[in-house]
Design brief:
Among the domains are: 89 residues, no CATH class; 135 residues, no CATH class. It starts with 12 loop residues before the first helix and ends with a strand. It has 425 residues and is mainly beta. The protein contains six helices and 36 strands. Helix 4 packs across helix 5. Strands 1-2-3-4 form a four-stranded antiparallel beta sheet, with no helix packed on it. A four-stranded antiparallel beta sheet has the order 5-6-7-8, with no helix packed on it.
Length: 425
């Protein structure tokens, strides 16, 4: 299993410090702060007390110059190396890249009605951000609330920080903690967390102290706060870290040692040394029971049990009982299987259509497959009839009507009749 990329979220002490410092001015929406100081880019080795050096930079956040300074501070934290401190010029150059992504919004927003034409009185607010789902987060007298497109406050200023609405919910900060409100201003999740991430597949990562877990949209803790690191749910599984170990969990919190990528809507999972399958919604299709399990192809997957291979369908039913010494994925409706040292082919009902008789074999492509017999490779069709007699040292799949073959140490190409189109050379 390859290592997870940097999209995995981190809630380090430094990242938390950045978040706190960014909100010192009290006029930075929590969502803006988290976006600006993307936690997965923070160097965990930076000393926490260095943060104080940038706190003053952040206090006057809100002007274009301050955005550049904030970006410089971001770069300092991202790239800080006590042995080789980067120059201010480097920070200045890099800062513009971040500044371009975080332009200071103007008021009123472009989607805000023209007050001169509609006789709408604009509320006197300190600052505002763009509308999302019909509401905009605005700051007045040091507190954040939400207005509609007529400029009327639907949710009175009361929060220390506020983010945009997404799918009917918005993150807000109150008394130093984060929660979620609906469009009436009612708390769906009470302010109690240090971080709340976006929902994915109905669950969101929440962090309190140094531990994270998952909540649903009603605020119920579905998977208790226990992880040191976590990624969002995707295709029914989430990648999480506990101590020094990474593993996958489903939406019940069940731990799996390994999980493959999704293929044909299903993922191979491993638990207690056994393999099974889970679908995109997190439903177990086949309980971990096999010694080995492979990805689905053409609706069936190879599974291994008691050192024999068989096939399973997407409902978890064994279509072909484990009985073969080896087996290929299905291609063009047929799969190669090995029994008693010889290869043959079966269809998706489990019926042997070409009796095991070959010393080696490959998968079908464009109606033909290479088989090894009498020390040479040739080609057969789906009835098992030789269309190109065994004569090659090696043979490959047909593609666009041609197949690469090797003969007498040289490579060439043949058509489906076996005629050389490109002579071996």
């Amino acid at each position: 299993m390859k290592e997870k990329n940097t999209s995995v979220k981190k809630w380090s002490k430094v990242a938390l410090g950045l978040f706190i410092a960014t909100n010192l001015a009290g006029n930075v929406p929590e969502s803006q702060a988290l976006e600006t100081f993307s936690c997965d880019k923070v160097n965990d080795n930076i000393q926490f007390d260095v943060l104080a050096n940038y706190a003053n930079t952040i206090k006057n956040y809100g002007t274009q110059n301050n955005y550049i300074e904030i970006a410089q501070a971001y770069n300092a934290f991202s790239n800080y190396n006590f042995a080789n401190y980067q120059t201010q010029q480097t920070y200045q150059q890099n800062s513009y890249r971040y500044y371009n992504n975080y332009q200071v919004p103007t008021y009123p927003p472009s989607s805000y009605p023209d007050s001169s034409k509609n006789n709408i009185s604009q509320p006197q607010v300190d600052s505002t951000y763009n509308f999302s789902e019909g509401l905009a987060d605005v700051k007045k007298d040091g507190k954040w609330g939400y207005i509609d497109k007529t400029g009327k406050f639907l949710i009175e200023p009361q929060f220390d920080a506020a983010g945009s609405f997404s799918e009917g919910l918005a993150k807000v900060k109150k008394d130093g903690k984060l929660g979620l409100i609906d469009k009436t201003g009612k708390f769906v999740i009470q302010p109690q967390y240090d971080f709340i991430y976006s929902f994915s597949e109905g669950l969101a990562i929440v962090v309190k102290g140094r531990k994270g877990g998952f909540v649903d949209r009603t605020g119920n803790i579905v998977i208790k706060l226990q992880f040191d690191n976590a990624d969002d749910f995707s295709n029914g599984l989430a990648y999480v870290k506990k101590g020094r170990k990474w593993f996958h969990i489903d939406k019940t919190g069940t731990i799996y040692e390994k999980a493959s990528t999704v293929k044909e809507g299903l993922t191979v999972i491993k638990k207690n040394g056994k393999y099974g399958y889970i679908d995109k919604t997190g439903n177990i299709i086949s309980q971990p029971q096999f010694d080995k399990a492979y990805d689905f192809n053409e609706g069936l997957a190879v599974v291994k049990k008691n050192d024999k291979y068989g096939y399973i369908d997407k409902t978890g039913k064994l279509i072909v009982e484990p009985q073969f010494d080896d087996a290929f994925d299905f291609k063009e409706g047929l799969a190669g299987v090995k029994k008693n040292g010889k290869w043959g082919y079966l269809d998706k009902t489990g019926k042997i259509t070409i009796q095991p008789q070959f010393d080696d074999a490959k998968s079908f492509s464009e109606g033909f497959t290479a088989v090894y017999q009498d020390g040479k490779w040739g080609y057969i069709d789906k009835t098992g009839k030789f269309t190109v007699e065994s004569q090659f040292d090696d043979a490959y799949d047909f593609k666009d009507g041609l197949a690469q073959v090797k003969k007498d140490g040289k490579q060439g190409y043949i058509d489906k009749t076996g005629k050389f189109v490109i002579q071996p050379q």
